[in-house]
Predict the structure of Multifunctional fusion protein.
Amino acid sequence: MKARGRIIAFFLLVIVLLGMVGTTSLPIAKDIKLGLDLQGGFEVLYEVTPLSDGPEIDNDILSDTTDALMNRINVLGVSEPVIQIEGDDRIRVQLAGVEDQSQARELLSTEANLTFRDADDNLLMDGSDLVEGGATGTFDESGRPIVSLELKDPALFAEITGEIAQRPDNVLVIWMDFEEGVDSYQEERLKEDPKFVSAPTVSGRINSPSVQITGSFTVEETQNFAGILNAGALPVELEEIYSTSVGAQFGEEALDKTTFAAAIGIGLVLLFMLVFYRFPGVIAFITLAVYVYLILVIFVWIGGVLTLPGIAAIMLGVGMAVDANIITYERIREEIRTGKSVKDSFRIGARSSFSAIIDANVTTLLAAAVLFYFGTSSVKGFATLLIISILSSFITAVWGSRLLLGLWVQSGFLDNKHGWFGLKADKIHKLSEGKEITDLTTPFDRQDFAGNRNKFFAASLALIATGAIVLGMFQLNLGIDFSGGTRVEVTADSALTQQEVEEFLEEAGFPSDDVVISGDQSDIGVARYTDDFTQDQIDELTQAVNEEYGQNPNVSTVSNQVAIELAQNALYALAIAALGIIIYVAFRFEWRMGVASIVALIHDTFFIVAVFSLLRLEVDLTFIAAVLTIVGYSINDTIVTFDRIRENMRSMKKIDTVEQLEKVVNVSLRQTLVRSVNTVMTVTLVVLALLIFGAPSITNFSIALLIGLIAGTYSSIFIAAQLWLVLKKKELNKKGPIDIEKKEQESKWGSDEPVV
């Protein structure tokens, strides 16, 4: 009866979990904020400088500026804008979903200094003479859109208009952001599109509490104009030093493609788990569904913004969550193969695998935390989701998976049903044989990893030398994030050619000799420029592209100053992540394993860089995100191997010879290699889905991940473990036999067993 109760409890718990997921997922998904790359919009980073006669920049000035910017954004009707103060003199603005990006940029950047001048540009009145909040968009007697302003002192305006009416050139010129010594009415009036707002003729004295500004306005323009004036003039000058804009059509297409890729990747992972692990694979299916749901709930709760790299982080999190399941399931299967009961195997396997899982997750968290600290915009969002994914996977894969599987194990239903764990009868020994895990056969028993270590080292050195030659010849194809400049991405309804795009850009007045065609249908043209475009240049180019192709382009600009800072931050991020990992691994294991881990990470990073140099792929911020992700993943794989080495050394009590060390390494690698292959298989399925079906904007990101996965698996097996063996061999030769028990007593960490 008790056994049946556990199975009933399992089904009730699954029904509740899946019911909750099924009924609330859609409303939660609708509440997720989409980033610029998924719904279009733009992001701009302003450097704030004081006005010529204004105070120095401080926190109060920055706060007042963000308030003024927010008031202007409210005029646009943009939902959930993001305005952040960065450092001592910068403000980042993100407006997702805005339709007229040119208009929005103009609204933000104008200082809103309204002045009334005569034909000789002499100042007569300014914004301080107007009633605050008194500007309104309205209509004149003929139904034309106008802007009405309320005056503080009607008598002053009457005096000014009376004086102008007596002059030969009797115009009252109304300016927005007039620049002394630069702007001139006499020059501007000859232009087809003058810079001044309007220049009405004054025929007599006007004694009125309000002023009406007329011109060739649209209703929307009068509303925006009034909104800017009511928001007030900016207390500072703003200079764009970084910007990126994404057309709405790019965002929609990217969202569709990447969510489809996510579905394919996750589906393949689940299918693999079901085929290879059978019933535990079913448990993994349930916990992964809860895992994805939990991520979305937490992300909505913290008000996160979902981006393309963020979706990739969720998918990678699926691979890491599966990794925790695989570590546990493989260990349970090993215990079953020694002849232990399913209950004992579950208990021992859950306990023994916990240390490897927690160490692997902590090191990945370190890399993600560094990425969050040094990242910007979508990269920071990627890091946030990666952190949430790791924590959520720990909850579902460790606690949830063991709880659900434990109900079946403790019920006794799975006793002697080894096929439910994907095991064949001929692979299971009798308990009376006294087999230990180290005695079990593996598919790799013929491989002498330790004995061939010099060959592996030589192969890696040869590849490193080749990579160094490639880097010396081709160097890196740095994107604008690290080199500065402008990147323009044009999409068309049909296939494009390089010549066609080059000719169009030249006719538009923006010639480029660096044009690349991409996209599944060769329908995307990417042009790069060494100069960072001004707002006017971006507006002009956007209009030309829209007229030619019917869609707004993606335009990103990065100043040289920001490019240098981003490059420095990238190097800091990699260095700090590596330092944090080596400290943790040395503290949790020993310093030799820490050194070996870092050498393996440098090995992996170098190969990613070398391949990108050879293939001339663009190196940008998402590339750094991919490298740091691989750093976390690679150390994950290495730690699982080191954890097994540590466990096998404990069972030996004492090591007297090099041959014993080599045996430990060989046995440990053979035991963990199945897990390594299965894990890299699941994560590779996810990355391949991103690469094949995902949006073009994360193609390079996916390629970097794929290269890193291959290099990381190789280094964990053939570099890290072998290098540790070399260092440990020196210790053995120098200090004599290694007393494992004594070392364990000197360094106690506490219980590695979770309570479920």
Remarks:
- Confidence is low (pLDDT under 50) at residues 748-756.
- The chain has 22 helices and 20 strands.
